[in-house]
Design brief:
single chain, 138 residues, mainly alpha, three-stranded parallel beta sheet, 9% strand
Length: 138
């Protein structure tokens, strides 16, 4: 039996509810979002230059996971590892490390494989870099 198959009972008994808000007035509806009781919300954030995260600077306490997009999947430009790490650090200025999810903007299917693969690789490298930095800072 493979290791992955051993995890199936866990996932069946511990499902997570993920929701996605794409191009919405996130800050205007944050309290309704909190009341939805989702485990994780992903939001478009790359085109709004972190404006959607201002609600957290204003003191709104969101205890669930949040994945503000770290790069715009709709652009053919491939963001560097350093650029993505910089964006993640900006997010960590207003979000706790235990609720931040690192993800791209929605719409992976709209990108070309030659753009999506290196961009995702850079995103993973940036996340690993910051995890290492956070672990060594403790």
């Amino acid at each position: 039996m493979s290791r992955g198959m051993n995890l199936l009972p866990f996932f069946f008994h511990h499902p997570q509810i993920h929701i996605h808000m794409c191009y919405c007035n996130f800050n205007d509806i944050i309290h309704s979002i909190i009341n939805m009781d989702a485990d994780v919300i992903t939001i478009e954030n790359s085109r709004s230059d972190e404006k959607l995260l201002s609600v957290f600077r204003e003191g709104v306490n969101y205890g669930a996971g949040i994945g503000p997009s770290v790069y715009d999947i709709h652009s053919p430009r491939i963001p560097s590892t350093e650029e993505i790490a910089y964006r993640i650090n900006k997010m960590l200025a207003v979000l706790e490390t235990d609720i931040l999810w690192v993800n791209p903007d929605c719409g992976l299917k709209t990108g070309k494989y030659t753009e999506v693969k290196p961009a995702l690789s850079n995103m993973v490298a940036a996340a690993k870099l910051l995890l290492t930095q956070l672990a060594s800072a403790k």
